[in-house]
């Protein structure tokens, strides 16, 4: 399903994080953090190495009204001050469903930022979904734990291509039904 160009991507606030639309000004930190093999290899779409130009293109696409994904910066300050800790996104699918993806910079691992960001995004349900899906590589148990902790149910196994690894990698696929959608 194509993104609705009339959709206004909201700023979302939680106790621990603020999720704000990613902007061009975030490109230097996106490049700095995502140009880490530990991040890139746990995603399908981040190349390694990641250039500043590629990060700038990613941030520009996040602001494009014709985009496929809504991308938020995970700010570690609930007041929305620029303190980029990672990125979380929703990709429109169909049948009132979106796919969530996220990464947090290694300097902020094991501090609850991914869990907090996911909880804020699910509570807001900005796409008005009936459900959200997610996939994680099987060698990324930390992300699987984040999804399980947020109430996602394991659907099964599959595989996805990782650009950074240049290989197909086994995945676990998860689903979460959202109330009241």
Oligomer: single chain
Task: Specify the helix fraction band.
Answer: 10-25%
N- to C-terminal distance: 18 Å
Number of strands: 8
CATH topology of the domain at 12-127: Aminopeptidase
Query: What's the tally of helices?
Result: 5
User: Low-confidence segments, ≥5 residues, pLDDT <50?
Assistant: none
What is the string of SSEs from the N terminus onward? Answer: EEHHHEEEHEHEE
Mean pLDDT: 94
Shape: globular
Q: Largest sheet at a glance?
A: 8 strands, mixed
Structural class: alpha+beta
Output the CATH homologous superfamily of the domain at 12-127.
Gcn5-related N-acetyltransferase (GNAT)
Describe the structure.
This protein is an alpha+beta fold. The chain has a domain at about 10-125: Gcn5-related N-acetyltransferase (GNAT) (Aminopeptidase). About 25% of the residues lie in helices and about 30% in strands. The chain has an eight-stranded mixed sheet, sandwiched between helices. Strand 7 and strand 8 form a beta hairpin. The radius of gyration is 15 Å and the shape is globular. The mean pLDDT is about 95.
Layout: helices, strands, pairs:
Elements: E1 12-13, E2 18-21, H1 27-34, H2 37-40, H3 52-62, E3 69-75, E4 84-92, E5 97-104, H4 113-124, E6 131-137, H5 141-149, E7 153-162, E8 167-177
Parallel strand pairs: 5-6
Antiparallel strand pairs: 1-2, 2-3, 3-4, 4-5, 6-8, 7-8
């Amino acid at each position: 399903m194509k993104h609705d160009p009339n959709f206004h991507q909201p700023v979302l606030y939680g106790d621990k994080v603020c999720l704000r639309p990613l902007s061009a000004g975030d490109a230097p930190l996106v490049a700095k953090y995502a140009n880490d093999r530990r991040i890139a290899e746990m995603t399908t779409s981040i190349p390694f190495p990641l250039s500043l130009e590629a990060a700038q293109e990613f941030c520009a696409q996040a602001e494009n009204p014709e985009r496929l994904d809504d991308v938020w910066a995970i700010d570690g300050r609930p007041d929305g001050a620029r303190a980029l800790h990672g990125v979380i996104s929703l990709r429109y699918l169909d049948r009132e469903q979106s796919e969530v993806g996220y990464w947090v910079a290694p300097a902020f691992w094991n501090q609850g930022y991914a869990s907090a960001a996911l909880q804020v995004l699910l509570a807001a349900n900005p796409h008005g979904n009936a459900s959200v899906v997610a996939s994680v590589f099987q060698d990324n148990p930390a992300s699987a734990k984040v999804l399980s902790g947020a109430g996602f149910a394991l659907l099964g196994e599959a595989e996805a291509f990782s650009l950074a690894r240049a290989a197909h990698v086994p995945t676990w696929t998860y689903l979460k039904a959202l109330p009241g959608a």
